[in-house]
Amino acid sequence: MPGLPPSAVNDDRYLPGHLGALTAYLPPELVEAVLAETGRLQQRLRLLPSRCDVYFVLALCLFPQLGMALVWEKLVHAWGLRAPRPTSAALRQLRARLSPAPLRALFEVLAVPLAPAGTPGVGYRGLRTVAFDGCHSLHVPDTVDNRAWLGRVRTRLGWAGYPALNVMTLSVFSVASPG
Q1: How far, in Å, CA of 149 to CA of 135, rounded?
Q2: One-letter-per-residue 3-state SS of 15-49
Q3: Could you say which of 36, 51, 153, 176 has the lowest number of CB atoms within 10 Å?
């Protein structure tokens, strides 16, 4: 990156394995390429590089029942005492400066079938086998836009406090193990 010393860009604390198991599935090079493509790569040296923003937001999705500080601790526990301890305000800013664009681009890169067509066990009679799972709902911020889009949720006890986003996933699965 122009203007930053190589030691700042290639800090070993941000290498795979130090940001939890996410780096095994999302290599830092892929995350940085998506950030660069969407114009969200950091322009100056920060304590937390912009790729940490992506891993942090994804970790928030993996642990929705925990607060941001606890999610951060899970994400960087391998760093030990060298781990930065951002304040809650800094974590909110970290999340806010990311924007949805890099996550959308990352999804478009990764949301493809892993097995190529014709691989034994991934289809039945020439069709790819899939499963739907729609058993999860997420609470979203109670804003005018979200209420207009999602409406209000009625429960047996009255109106829910937050609008809910119902999530349905489509997954490709194998019908038989090859071999």
Answers
A1: 20
A2: CCECCECHHHHCCHHHHHHHHHHCCCCCCCCCCCC
A3: 176
Q: 51 Cβ partners below 8 Å, 6+ apart?
A: 14, 28, 31, 32, 35
Q: Hey, what are 65's tokens?
A: 């029942």
Instruction: Tell me the CA distances in angstroms from 24 to 16, 21, 69, 132, one per residue in order.
Output: 7, 6, 23, 26
Which residues does 110 contact at the CB level (< 8 Å), separation at least 6? 26
Give the Cα separation of 165 and 33 in Å (integer): 30
Global pTM exceeds 0.70: no
Burial of 35 (C-beta count, 10 Å sphere; 0-12/13-18/19+): buried
On whether the CB atoms of residues 20 and 74 are closer than 8 A, the answer is yes
Give the tokens for residue 134: 């729609």
